[in-house]
Amino acid sequence: MNTPRVSRESVLDAAMRLVEEQGFEALSMRRLAAELGVAVTAIYWHVGNREALIAQLVDRVLAQLGDVAPAGRSPRQRIIAVGKALRRMIHDHPHVIALVYEHGRTALMMLPAERALAREVGAAGLDGRRGAVVVRAVLHHVVGYVLLERAVRRGPEQHPTTAELWRDADEIGIEPGLARELGRPVDQDRLFELSLRALVDGLLR
Amino acid sequence: MNTPRVSRESVLDAAMRLVEEQGFEALSMRRLAAELGVAVTAIYWHVGNREALIAQLVDRVLAQLGDVAPAGRSPRQRIIAVGKALRRMIHDHPHVIALVYEHGRTALMMLPAERALAREVGAAGLDGRRGAVVVRAVLHHVVGYVLLERAVRRGPEQHPTTAELWRDADEIGIEPGLARELGRPVDQDRLFELSLRALVDGLLR
DNA sequence: ACCTGAACACCGTTCAAGT
DNA sequence: ACCTGAACACCGTTCAAGT
To answer: Which end of chain B is more exposed for a tag (fewer CB within 10 A), N or C?
Structure first.
């Protein structure tokens, strides 16, 4: 009886490395096997099939993520802080969101932040119905924003550049100063913070 | 000289049908060929390779989408109307967003709505810098919201159901009435409209 | 308990060859 | 100009067989 060549953990480790270094689409059973120096079918013994492997990867990653820590004096400030922390957390683990999104477990990823928001909203003294709307609206705004950031960033070098798209804008009734501004690249950090603040202000009014 | 068996258009038609009926992942060159009753390689002659095929599909779909029509009396109402129309448009073409998202051309899909928003924001009398923030914040909110809706809807029947997730909430400092409310299913239409209104209110203040 | 090898049914893509 | 067939390098998965 000789020691096992791989284990569930070593398979997950290698899979995680593959995803982090080469992206989600590089994760194939055969490449994984080659990486581990083992026959493809050995992997199946340890983790089941590909879908199960990904599920276990998602579980592991979600466990690592950790809670978001709110900071600030007023409930309003703390709600905004949770939103910013959530975005930062997702940004710090770009491979995670691909994995989680592709496997349809976004709702679970958002749960810690949802709870943190619920605490702050409760502290702000809102009743259940109005409070739930605030929690969910903020949560949706933040996560949706990050998903879109990802989608747009992934875009190829656009054939028509952003500036060109707005060159003819005044001909179709768009104010020139506005068109010029919209032709510039977006400062995502600034836009995120401004829109989050506006949303929270609108919700707490 | 006999007539061609397929054309660029017939290939795109068949590909579109495949995506609409069986989803994006069902679109393979070989299946497409089988559907058309032709050798796989014939497709390559007409559309290039798979990536090029998808690009042409995206172009065609974006051309079909049409503009969003604003309605309402005040600029504020019209901005909200554009946001709602954009979400409806994306919802009406669920296969489109998969295609566009997967191919990184989300920014182009948003352009008509962005222009409609720019007109309304200009009419509201905001200057360039502030107006651009409003346009982009609303646009990001709406599209991000829809992307997240998609992600969450795709989630498998969660092992822990939503209600269970909030059962122990009061033990970790969450107000019971709020926890009960968060355990209920989300009314997406209502939440979308409320959060959009709040965002616009916060932005126009 | 743990691993291999062969086999099956799929992929996308290239290339020489046919009409 | 338009299409075929063979070939190559990939996939995920199952199954019988080995130790």
So the answer is: N
